[in-house]
Amino acid sequence: MTKPLSVLLIDDNPARAEIVETGLAAEGYRLLARLGGTQDLATRVSELMPDVVVVSIDSPSRDTIEDMRRTTDVVPRPIALFVDRSDPATIAAAMAAGVCAYVVKGLAQDRVRSVVDVAVAHFNRYHTMREELDRARLSLVERKAVDRAKGLLMEQKGLTEESAYRLLRKLAMDQNKRMGEVARDLITYAKALKD
């Protein structure tokens, strides 16, 4: 059995919040707290560590969107946003701020679960792709460092490219480091000796 997702609900309208709370409870979500607005949202999310943030408001203001952006930057969490009114610019700004599901005039108790599920799935997919991109960038940076370090070894020690690569690999194994780290160290030392 999986642990129920914990939710931080933000809504300044008690009647509307009741609809969302009922929908969350009916689907087995655990409500951590209900806030009346997004001010200090990043701090509250850091303190409560919800699995999902659900925001239900009339129309998101620039301040609300900026509060969500700060939260996404500091403590990334899936954010599902229910609004009564919207426009294309606001939708684009909210999505750029990290909102994972944006629903206009669609607040109904029986829709809460599907919207939260979409927000979580979108969040997970986005973060998986971001991690893959970060790994690819690191790999490219490390490959460039290894090539540069091989060049230094070939120049300074008169090694072939294959011999320089084997030497780097041996140094990495001996030091229990990745080759990219050893290559960066070697480049740093070479710069220090040159200066």
Shape: elongated
Low-confidence parts lasting 5 or more residues at pLDDT below 50?
A: none
Q: Please, what is the CATH homologous superfamily of the largest domain?
A: Response regulator
CATH topology group of the largest domain: Rossmann fold
What strand line-up does the widest sheet have? 2-1-3-4-5
Please identify, by name, the CATH architecture of the largest domain.
3-Layer(aba) Sandwich
Give the helix tally. 7
Helix content: 55-70%
Determine the strand fraction and express it as a percent band.
5-15%
CATH class of the largest domain: Alpha Beta
Give your account of this protein's structure:
- With 195 residues, the chain is of the alpha/beta class.
- It has two domains: 6-107, Response regulator (Rossmann fold); 132-194, Orthogonal Bundle (Arc Repressor Mutant, subunit A).
- The chain is 62% helix and 13% strand.
- It has seven helices and five strands.
- The protein has helices at residues 14-26, 41-48, 62-74, 88-96, 112-157, 161-175, 179-194; strands at 6-10, 30-35, 52-57, 79-83, 101-104.
- The chain has a five-stranded parallel sheet with strand order 2-1-3-4-5, sandwiched between helices.
- It is elongated, with a radius of gyration of 25 Å.
- The model has no long low-confidence stretch (mean pLDDT 89).
